[in-house]
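Handout, section 4.2: multi-component inputs.
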Amino acid sequence: MPCILESRREGLFCPAGGFFIDPRGKVDLAVITHAHSDHARGGHASYLCSDNTKPLLRIRLGLKAKIESIPFGEIIKIGDAFVSLHPAGHILGSCQVRVEVGGRVWVVSGDYKTQSDRTCESFEVINCHGFVTESTFALPVFEWLPEDDVYIQINDWWLNNAEREIPSILFAYSLGKAQRILAGVDRSIGPIFIHNAVSPFLPIYEKFGVNMPLVEKIGQGSKQNYTKGLIVAPPIVEDSSLLKQFGLAKRAFASGWMALRGLRRRRNFDKGFVLSDHADWKGLLDVIVATGAESVKITHGNGESLSRYLVEIGIDASILQGYGRGRQELLV
Amino acid sequence: MPRYCRVTDADARSYWSKGMKLFSQLFHDLDSTTKTNARLDFLVNYFLEADPKDAIWVCWFLNGNRIKGALKTSELRLFASHFSGLPVWLVEECHQNVGDLAETVSLLVHGAGGIPPVKGLNEIVQRYIRPLVDMSFDEKRDRLREACNYLRSKDLLPFYKLLTGGFRMGISSGNLYKALARVGKVEPAFIAQKLSGNWNPDSLRMDDILKPSSDDSRLCVPFPFCLAYPLQEKPESLGICKDWQVEWKWDGIRAQLIINAGISMLWSRGDESVGHSFPEIIEASKLIPHDICLDGEIMSWGSDGLGSFSELQQRLGRKNPGLSILQRVPVRFIAYDILAIDGQDLRERPLSFRREKLEAVLEFLPSKFPVGLSPLVDEKDWITLSRLREESRERRVEGFMLKKRNSRYDSGRVKGCWYKWKVDPFLADMVLVSAQLGHGKRANLYSDYSFAVWRDGELLTVAKAYSGLKNKQIEQVDDFIRKNISGRFGPVRGVKPELVFEIAFEGVNISNRHKSGVALRFPRIKRWRKDKTANDACTLDEIRGFSGMKCSDSERDSSSIDGAGNLLLF
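Output:
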């Protein structure tokens, strides 16, 4: 039986097609699942991604990068491999990579979620023999509320602060989560400000058909009044002096990690909103079972528990070594 | 603004009693802020609004108490496994990652939000927590199942916290006293004394706490201890030496000895009555012809002088110790302050006054007596004191205590009055060899470390440490650990021995319980030695060498007793 995917230093490699999926280092052809920086790295000779990922990737990699894209579901032949991309529901344009060689099908999930999200394409279950799944939140303590419930929480918090004229700073990853929040919150509560890192992606989301509110960049014009405002910024600027101008603002973080009280307290956030772009425990199990895969390989995160659990319920699962992402999601 | 009364649709559909709701709201309010003043406001509003029968439980729990024996950790995990349908190992794995068992269970076991048969936090504790103490596991499980039927999702964590106990919600005991003092319009010190010692909501009502009464039958309870700050600057920063009373800092157990109407009690700082472990002190105190409250230290002490803390440990937790241990490890209570005498509270009087009083009261006690006076160190300048401090280890003391002569006896840690000027700790470079996920704020972060030193080309673990690194560093170390796990032993991860840290510790005890043969006292991380590799770490022999400095038999003669029965250390 031909080997469809192998684990190399640079990442997952398909020998039949001669391409890597989300590789690091320097390779000839990189198939990219989505435009987050820990999946879409610069330096490769050429890139293949979904049509909707292409403009995001262009911002990430610059004008010189050689990027080709295909629509979801279109099958192309690379070497001896048939390759197609399918929505992963993680962020706009994110895809699963389906690879078929000699009648055997493997699907690499990239990051995914099954929850509804108006800012990206919905996850699609692909039947396969083998499934490579992420496991960022692979413990049963992670169970997401419907996203509209979370927006109600965010609106309540923002409104409560705005009534008392306290600015609300909401930390969220600059690509994906930030746009999701912008599209989800009640824009009638007050003005919305965004950090520079969030803004370049907005036109692309709007082009995709996401209804974005009117926003202002922070620090533009000296007479900005933040007291009733919602300020959306990436967590990386959490400690920076940039935030001083907001005075005694309330600070919250929107992330799946906020399901754990200890993590919120460690970072001294006033509030944590459990809003994730990854699948929760139940989401992971539902997808894995639905693919019908005989073999499951686990990357990125809490693989040990998931793999043991899957084996106990009769699914052949193991951890794909060399893919430890550690706590990057929390830190980026 | 209290927000407790807001009734939402969800509340109307399915509600737990108002008492639980108020408590849940308090819990989440306290959790929603990091500001002490805001927390105090929430607490005051709660006490004003809640049923006193409920409020007294909140006082009791926030004072650090738990209902002992209600549910073992393993039982709670089993319970979570039963109700979530998850295997026990997965519940344990979740617990490791969440870093808090009550929180883990609240995330795994969901409530049904039905209409409860009981009202009030008090009744909830009485029906769903207290009776568990006498139940079999199956009965406990059924009772908890019943409780779950009535829990709204917001109540889950507060309820399981009540069950496991030991939660403070960012409220120090001092702040609890402050909040209650605001409610009762009394002094925090008054509240503090009411909540000291052993009590439970059966024996104390909110009114007892909040209202002063003349016929107070609980006079045998300790005062809140005055605590010292570590001296960070040079002693010269404290001004002239003669303004300060200097004593040796004893390496024993802090305690208050209280004599009231012929009854003597000994209270440790943890508000535990420990008199039964030290009958000779209780017996001896009966010779003092006053009602009195003394602050001092229990120490292991024999005819050959001051013993070590590890000897003293053998006396701890023993009720009615037998004759042989009484003879082998004799103890002594060394008094250094007097807080009350014959119904008169002396805490507002200056230390110099109290010292005179203390000496006058204890003066007549016979020599070699189990109750004695902590002697003063009478040096006139900081330089001489600094030199003398170097002898601390040989004298088996931890350094000096510096107390301002004109200071009153404060409750808790108040800056500027009492300082501990400890001898510098021992330092040694060690290698990080294993780690475990942390708890609370350090949940999901490898932050509990084990450190090793070399012996014959092998690394032997000699210390565990949790504190000393900055948050950023902990995250960096966590990142390293995740990438360099070499083995798994239950929740413990073996780590490739690469990172070197300078570990500070107070002493070395020879211990047969550890493979390395040594146990370090109070080890903590001093700094991350990024400039060193594992090979640069120190050896077990070097560590053992430190113990020789602290506790070799040849040095046992260094202290003797004077005519008054006091230890002669200088």
